[in-house]
Design goal:
- This protein has 293 residues and is an alpha+beta fold.
- It folds into 2 domains: 170 residues, Regulatory protein AraC (Jelly Rolls); 110 residues, Homeodomain-like (Arc Repressor Mutant, subunit A).
- The chain has a 5-stranded antiparallel beta sheet.
- Helix 7 crosses helix 8.
- It is globular.
- The two termini are 32 Å apart.
Length: 293
């Protein structure tokens, strides 16, 4: 899914502050966030606890505490639990709003105009700008968490430092790094269409053949490309997406489990029970009992 229509990704501190910082709430389960992308936001993730499996633009990563992930706009990414639920902070920058506001100056122009090719991960001891970036991100998180008087001004200052460090380190990166081929870019766009199709039709019966047709690929090539980009097979992705939708209904409505199974594409409560327990570690009924006041 894209960031359009997803409130958590569009929350900003106001027109003068075109960014957002948040520590996502996390419920026990396998998926942290399903495959999605942001049309105009640069996303930064700093892992604070445990391990997280991330797939960014078709590349898998295992993030550990201290790791910083940089996800450019339009890049498909997803996150999964490795062992225990991880902790992490996310910073989202709306580059369109940044570029059209007085927030930035010439020093950060290369970042705002897309003249950078950022690495997907910064790691201590491996990447030169890591220490400066980590210091700025931790300061931003600290200001956001404490919310002391004037914290917006402090966050803006640290954000300037962070973006300037990235611009200094990677401003010429695109000149010496081969960009993804047109074929790879086209495949990513086709996979986005497939993901959007799945999210719009998850209540119905979904087949590899029909979804591959939407993506303009052969079923074999589609399955291979889908797993490469998303980190899960076509079937696993559908299961996980439906389970997330079912969990939301279980937690927020009093609908019978059998009706929830029908509305989320499982068909029967027995099938929902089986997959829900496999991925969430409990049955839908057990989860509902846990969430009752």
């Amino acid at each position: 899914m894209s960031d359009k229509g997803s409130n958590v990704y569009l929350m900003m501190l106001g027109d003068a502050y075109p960014y957002n910082v948040f520590e996502p709430e996390f419920n026990n389960g396998h998926t942290i966030f399903s495959s999605h992308w942001h049309e105009s936001c640069l996303e930064m993730i700093m892992v604070t606890r445990g391990e997280v499996e991330l797939h960014i633009g078709g590349k898998p990563f295992i993030g550990v505490p201290g790791d910083i992930f940089l996800i450019e706009e339009g890049v498909i990414h997803s996150g999964y639990v490795v062992d225990e639920p991880p902790g992490y902070y996310t910073i989202l920058l709306d580059r369109d709003r940044l570029a059209s506001s007085d927030f930035m100056n010439v020093a950060s122009r290369s970042l705002l105009t897309g003249n950078l090719r950022l690495p997907a991960r910064l790691r201590s001891g491996e990447d030169a700008p890591y220490e400066a970036c980590a210091l700025a991100i931790r300061a931003i998180i600290n200001e956001f968490t404490r919310k002391a008087e004037g914290y917006e001004i402090a966050m803006k200052s640290y954000l300037h430092i962070l973006l300037l460090e990235l611009a200094r380190s990677y401003g010429e990166f695109s000149a010496r790094t081969e960009r993804r081929s047109e074929t790879a870019e086209r495949n990513m766009e086709r996979l986005k269409e497939a993901i959007t199709y799945i999210e719009s039709n998850y209540r119905e019966r979904l087949t590899v053949g029909e979804t591959a047709r939407v993506a303009g690929m052969s079923p074999y090539y589609f399955c291979r490309m889908f797993k490469h980009a998303v980190g899960r097979t076509f079937t696993e992705f559908i299961h996980l997406y439906r389970i997330c939708q079912a969990e939301t209904l279980i937690r927020t409505t009093g609908l019978p489990i059998s009706l929830i199974a029908e509305r989320t594409g499982f068909g029967t409560s027995q099938y929902l029970d089986e997959l829900f327990k496999r991925y969430k570690g409990c049955t839908p009924t057990q989860l509902r009992k846990q969430t009752l006041p």
